[in-house]
Structures are given as structure tokens and as C-alpha cells.
Fold this sequence. Notes:
Strand content: 15-25%
Radius of gyration: 21 Å
Number of strands: 10
Number of helices: 10
Oligomer: single chain
Distance between the termini: 28 Å
Amino acid sequence: MPELPEVEVVRAGLARHVVGRAIAAVEVLHPRPVRREPGGPAGFVAALVGRTVTDARRRGKYLWLPLDSGDAILGHLGMSGQMLVQPVGAADERHLRVRFSLVEPALSVVEPALSLLEPAPSVVEPAPSVVELVETTPLELRFVDQRMFGGLSVSVGGAELPAEIAHIARDPLDPQFDDAAFVRRVRRRSSAIKRQLLDQTLVSGVGNIYADEALWRARLHGERPGDRLTGAQVTELLGHCREVMLEALGQGGTSFDALYVNVNGQSGYFDRSLNAYGQEGRPCARCGTAIRRISFMNRSSYFCATCQRPPRNRSVPH
DNA sequence: ATCGCGACCTGGTTGC
DNA sequence: TGCAACCAGGTCGCGA
């Protein structure tokens, strides 16, 4: 499930392979992923054809591609979304929903070396062989999404920050994230701490998996009310959110070098490094107690009942 | 205003 | 064997 680290890997891939290219054609193969588009599939296509992608940005789990028109393509991967960069002619994926045909911008055709002299600031300079492939092969950006919880839309004037996601908080890896304000807000609410971690208006990018992992590291049960936690506890928990997502990002980093931008590989993090999520019945890495699974917020929550004591003053069935 | 829940989706797995 | 129920869960919208 794409959470912040996986979405960031996708963003970096788009920054490398898509930014600077022009959109020659758009094909919407299923209407649902563009359901948020006021103009429907036709409006979506019309707003994009002929535009050039100027950047690849992210806030929380949302991605957007600013365009030379001042608009942006706003996207969310949902549960199963992928952004794939494929050569023209590659077989269609089973759940291909939207296809963008990308052409080289005129500048690169005339002066192919320019992009080498001016790499995007936040992107590691790609290996020469990759650059050659990218700049000589016609590409497609493909939105593939089996379950279609994800979506794409055109955000009018949204190049800097789409108005549609103005309510989404900064994420913990954003240098401008306000730790003190987060701690203050959490401690003002009686809502369960896990619910607050998943509230994208408080902190973005954290999903069910990294919430469980951060709570395990902090030795906190997800049903503990926020207003019953100390400032030190919330601060430590926030640090664990950062830590666990940075570790996952590090393990997903290998796909930065691939032309094939994939989020479904789950960054390799899932196979080895999870201490709580999905570990029902396995011994806790700290104390050996079997990890338990409970239903919370109509989701699964995994925790160690020894290290993460459930709150006492609540009528929680067990 | 805040809070919490159901709906939206598909396909793999489980249960009868 | 066949079919129904269940499960995965991010986000939105609605009702309390």
C-alpha cells in the first residue's frame, strides 16, 4: 500500500523520467480514475494535450505534476495505483487506466546536452546510459490501478499547491513541518492516537502500516487517547514516524535508477523490516510476546500487548 | 466545529 | 465443485 515512502519513490522517478517532456496525447481507458475531473475524461484530455511537465511534487500521499500552463496533474495512488514509465509499444497492463504519450520537448531535440548541464536540483544525476535511453526513446506514462481508489485530475492553477489538497497537512519529512504544533494539537484531542496519526489534516503520509510500526517503536497502543499522552511521548512517536519512513525510503531507493517506475514493489521494506504490521502470531522482536491483530477503525491493527499496553479506562472488548 | 462510520473498488482467499 | 462472504485500506462525504 503506497504510503509516504512509496509515493516519494514514484515522485523521484517522475522527476527523472517525465519532467521536461511534453504531453502529445492522453487516453482515458476507464472513467473512474478521473471521476474528480469536472470536465470528465474529455475535459481531462483537453486540458493536458500540448502541455509540458515542469516538475514533480508531493505532499503526503498526493503527487502533482506542475505544467507550463500553470495548472497541474494531481494524482493519488489510492490502494493499488502505479505510475509506470514504459516505452511505446510495451504490452498494456491488465489494469491500465490512463495513458500519457510523452514527447521530447523541442529544446532537448535541438540541444540534447542541455538537460545534462542543468539537472533538477533535488534529483541525483542519472547515469549517462539512462539519459540516452530516456532522451531517444518515445515514452508513455501509464496510470495503472487495479482497485481504482486512486485518481487523477487537472488542478486549475495548481502548479504551486493544488487547492484540492490545501487541507492536507505537511508530512514529517517536510522541513517546514511544525513539530510543536503537531504535538499540541494531538494532546488537545481525546481521539485515539492511531486515528490521529492517520488524520491527513494533522500529519500526512502516514498510513496503516507505518502507523503500526511507529506505535510499536514508541511502545504505545494505538487506542490511547491523544489527550492522555505526554508531550514527550507524542514527540517520540513523531520521531519514530520519521525514522521508519526514512528507513523504508532508503530501501526503496534502488528503484530510483530504474526506468520502470513502480510502486507495487513495496520498496522491499515489507519483506524484512516490519516489526508489527502483518506479524500476527510472530514473536515481538523486543519481548517475544506474540503480536496480536485487532480490528480498529474497520482496519487491522497489529501490536504487542506486552510492550504496548491497551488503555485501561476505556470499554475495549477483548 | 469535531468525531466516527460507511461507501467506494477488485481480486485473492476462505468458508460452507 | 460452486458460490458467497470476507479481506485488503485511503479518502470523501454525511450524519450525529
